[in-house]
């Protein structure tokens, strides 16, 4: 389990870029739905309240990566490289 000191606002700039992707990915479809889907939004909201500018920057990076991966996957599919 994650200790609360790991989620401190003082180390948010180091921690959020690392944990955001896995949290976002596990926010739906995790084998332990009830627990994970309940905790993830709380953790993300906490970081959003800590530093909205950092949160928006990390969120933008994750969305950009997902779009790139989707575009690469679509290109591979069109070229028959699946």
Q: Could you explain the architecture of this structure?
A:
The protein is mostly helical and 82 residues long. The protein has one domain (4-79). Helix content is 74%, strand content 0%. It is built from three helices and no strands. Helix 1 (12-26) packs antiparallel against helix 2, helix 1 crosses helix 3 (52-79) and helix 2 (33-50) crosses helix 3. The longest helix is centred in the last third of the chain and has 28 residues, at 52-79. The radius of gyration is 15 Å and the shape is flat. The model has no long low-confidence stretch (mean pLDDT 80).
Number of alpha- plus pi-helical segments: 3
Give the SSE string.
HHH
Indicate the overall shape. flat
Query: What's the structural domain tally?
Result: 1
What is the C-alpha radius of gyration, as a whole number of Å? 15 Å
Number of strands: 0
By secondary-structure content and strand pairing, the structural class works out as mainly alpha
How many angstroms separate the termini? 37 Å
Low-confidence parts lasting 5 or more residues at pLDDT below 50? none
Largest sheet descriptor: none
Q: Bin the strand percentage.
A: under 5%
Mean pLDDT: 80
| Helicity level | over 70%
Short structural summary:
The protein is mainly α and 82 residues long.
Show the helix and strand layout.
Blueprint: H1 12-26, H2 33-50, H3 52-79
Question: What keywords describe this structure?
Answer:
82 residues, mainly alpha
């Amino acid at each position: 389990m994650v200790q609360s000191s790991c989620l401190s606002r003082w180390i948010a700039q180091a921690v959020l870029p690392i944990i955001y992707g896995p949290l976002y990915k596990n926010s739906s479809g995790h084998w332990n739905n009830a627990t994970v889907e309940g905790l993830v939004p709380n953790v993300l909201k906490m970081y959003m309240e800590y530093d909205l500018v950092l949160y928006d920057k990390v969120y933008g990076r994750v969305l950009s990566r997902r779009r790139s991966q989707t575009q690469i996957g679509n290109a591979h599919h069109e070229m028959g490289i699946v």
